[in-house]
Amino acid sequence: MAAVITVAVVDDDRMLRDGMRTWLSGREGLRLTGSTATVPELLGGHAEPPDVVLLDLLLRDGSAPEANIRALADAGCRVLVISTVPDRARIVAAISAGADGYVTKDNDLPALVAAVEEVAAGGTAVSPEMAFACAHDDRPERPRLSPRELQVLRDYASGLTLKAAARRAGITPNTAKDYLDRVKAKYRQAGRPAYTKIDLACRVREDGLGVP
């Protein structure tokens, strides 16, 4: 039997929380284990952290979205931001803080379930709004990568060997290594060094680069 994904909702809209409970009840493979208006309320009432937290971006308690995301991630939760706000800067800030995806509240249940499953599996749930925000992120701490550097980085950071990444790009392993060295140098110059494969995977996730 496949493992059940535990899900919690943090949103100060009670109607949405009630609707989410109805939506997810009886959904095979998912179990709603918490529904609160604030992050401290959720974390204080859970002995076992849920696998995935659906987090509203802007809560009435005045908490900072980035702080909420970090608190949930530190507790061992994967975080899927759900919001009515398609603001590019806020999306980028949420992903940089450690959110594992961003979807707007006008999505239907199958789309939400797919996003939850993607996040629970360790991936990133990428919506069109998130892809657009990340593609137009021009912060100085985000290096500007060439298309070929980006391709090799994505493939290598996704788990492929250097040889496999080179083969997919149609280049030699030595050339692929040159591209990765350039990527590392650019991140180092931006003040965000990436020395290992794990470091590179973190940069891909932080910058939302996992979208072709």
Automatic annotation (TrEMBL):
The keyword DNA-binding applies. The keyword DNA-binding applies. Residues 6-120 form the Response regulatory domain. This is Response regulator transcription factor. Keywords: DNA-binding, Phosphoprotein. It comes from Streptantibioticus parmotrematis. It comes from the Bacteria. PROSITE patterns: RESPONSE_REGULATORY. The modification 4-aspartylphosphate is found at D56. Pfam families: GerE, Response_reg. InterPro entries: CheY-like_superfamily, Sig_transdc_resp-reg_C-effctor, Sig_transdc_resp-reg_receiver, Tscrpt_reg_LuxR_C, WalR-like.
